[in-house]
Amino acid sequence: MPPSSPARAQSPPRVGPDEKRFRILEAARRVCTREGYEAATMEAIAAEARVSKGTLYNFFESKEHLFLSTVLQSYDEAEARFDGGPSEDPRVRLDGFLEAMIESFPHVAAGMMVNLQVWAVVSRDADSRTRMFEDLSQRYGRLGADLETTLSAGQRAGVFRPDFAAAAVAAGLLAVLDGYVYRSVFDPGRAGARDLRASFDALIRERVLVSGTEEGR
Fold first, then answer.
1. R_g of the chain, CA atoms, integer Å
2. Do residues 174 and 78 lie in contact, with contact meaning Cβ atoms separated by under 8 Å?
């Protein structure tokens, strides 16, 4: 019987470009959180992400581009949660939107210090500023339109009050979320997910629900 061949060492699993890009973005956030934007170098980020500096530049042409991408990635992750679900019941869909905002709040708030530093830098460059503002405007527009559609459907179904402007309430809910996110940076004890939920509950009870439907929520 011929001697058995020695076992070959298994190669580590290959990392695809999407996973590698995500790893770089997460590394950039960690480095910026520890050291601040100005002190964060591409070399430090490459080391943190366990990639070469050349690989880093294959994905991101500059430090500004990299950190702009970290901001937009944080919004990608939050927006992925914003799905009211398949139910045709406007109350269920509205609950789904609000729960998504509350569940995503801790993650968004945790990255807000990095986002603020990046905003300050990116806003100095006209092209980067335009890209970021257009991207965020589209995101807020999509979510606001979905909320407005749900609120209007509830009014037509008679489960939401008829005497409020759906567009204004949708914009107000998003503004409440933003307000708590920004306040979490300097006043975290008064701006947490529980506080956000309490504000949403109060606004929905007072402005949206038809009297007698509160028990169903």
1. 22
2. no
Distances (CA, A) of 146 to 23, 25, 74, 103, 173: 31, 29, 20, 18, 12
Residue 190 DSSP code: G
How wide is the angle at C-alpha 15 spanned by C-alphas 10 and 21, nearest 5°? 160
- Identity of the residue numbered 98: L
What is 108-131 written as a DSSP string?
A: HHHTHHHHHHHHHHHTTSHHHHHH
- pLDDT tens digits for range 169-206: 999 999 999 999 999 999 999 999 999 999 999 999 88
CATH, domain 68-212, list 1.10.357.10, 3.30.2310.20, 3.20.20.70, 1.10.3470.10: 1.10.357.10
Which residues, including other chains, have CB under 8 Å from residue 87's CB and lie 6 or more apart?
93, 96
> Crossing angle of helices 166-186/126-157, nearest 10°?
130
Fill in the DSSP letter of residue 209: B
Identify any residues that bridge with 209 across adjacent strands, giving them in sequence order: 160
pLDDT tens digits, residue range 62-116?
A: 888 898 888 888 888 777 776 545 568 999 999 989 999 999 898 888 888 888 8
